[in-house]
Amino acid sequence: MPARIQDILKIEVPIVVLLAERDMDVAEIVKITPGTLIELPTLADDELEVLVANKAIGVGSAVKVGENFGIRITYIGDLKSRIEALGPDDGS
User: What confidence score (pLDDT) does residue 88 get?
Assistant: First the structure.
């Protein structure tokens, strides 16, 4: 591979695993304090979305890795869609 591509492949980008999303009224958000429980519309064994640059590239299930959490990928988009996720937002 050309050196330029090797350099690009070394760039670090954030990977986000989305547990759930929920809309809340501003009044509810203002009342949040330490210890507040926010119920999420996701079951404990539901698959979680894997995002790069806020674009979904795959899904997986939560696993415990030692004392940490991890995600076991169960589906990953093709290489083209993963590379496109790294590009600029298309406005959608």
Answer: 78
Is residue 90's pLDDT more than 70? no
Give the global pTM: 0.75
How long is the chain?
A: 92
Given a cut of 90, is residue 49 above it in pLDDT? yes
Q: In Å, how far are 18, 28, 53, 60, 89 from 57, measured between CA atoms?
A: 12, 32, 10, 11, 14
Q: Please tell me the number of Cα atoms within 13 Å of 56 on its side-chain side.
A: 10
Q: Which of 56, 59, 52, 63 is nearest to 74 (CA)?
A: 59
Q: What is the pLDDT of residue 27?
A: 97
Residue 28, φ and ψ in degrees, nearest 5: -70, -40
Give the whole-angstrom CA distance, residue 38 versus residue 28: 10
The tokens describing 67, both together, are 């004392």
